[in-house]
Amino acid sequence: QVQLVESGGGLVQPGGSLRLSCAVSGRTTNNYVMGWFRQAPGKDRKFVGHIFPRSGSTYYAEDVKGRFTISRDNAKNTVYLQMNSLNPEDTAVYYCATDFDGNRWSTWGQGTQVTVSS
Questions:
Q1: What is the 3-state secondary structure (H, E, C) of the chain?
Q2: Of all residues in the chain, what percent carry a pLDDT higher than 70?
Q3: Looking at the predicted structure, is the pLDDT value of residue 31 above 90?
């Protein structure tokens, strides 16, 4: 059974950077598309980006494009979300996900809190 465990969240000042990790167990990261999402307080969960299997190509939501980068380390079975130029609007719980059937993502991690504040 696949399990996803996020880590790396915390408090960061505006303009700062964080790197989130999503450790995957039960399968290899290079065979499945992996996604990142976030949920701000009182709001719906929103798509951040994803990385395709094999090719490693990525796709991002418009509000993070150019600031966030998704990558993976197949040897460590881990997917990363590098976040730069953070602003308070990036404050949210960040989740990684997999098992995308073209319509929905069915396997989720527990999330990690990111707070951007001075």
A1: CCEEEEECCEEECCCCCEEEEEEEECCCHHHCCEEEEEECCCCCEEEEEEECCCCCCEEECCCCCCCEEEEEECCCCEEEEEECCCCHHHCEEEEEEEEECCCCEEEECCCEEEEECC
A2: 99
A3: no
- Measured between alpha carbons, how far is 17 from 86 in angstroms, rounded to an integer? 6
**pLDDT, average across residues 86-101:** 96
Whole-angstrom distance, CA of residue 106 vs CA of residue 12: 30
Beta strand pairing status for 10-12 and 112-116?
parallel
What is the mean pLDDT of the segment spanning 21-47? 91
> What is the phi/psi pair of residue 51, to 5°?
-125, 130
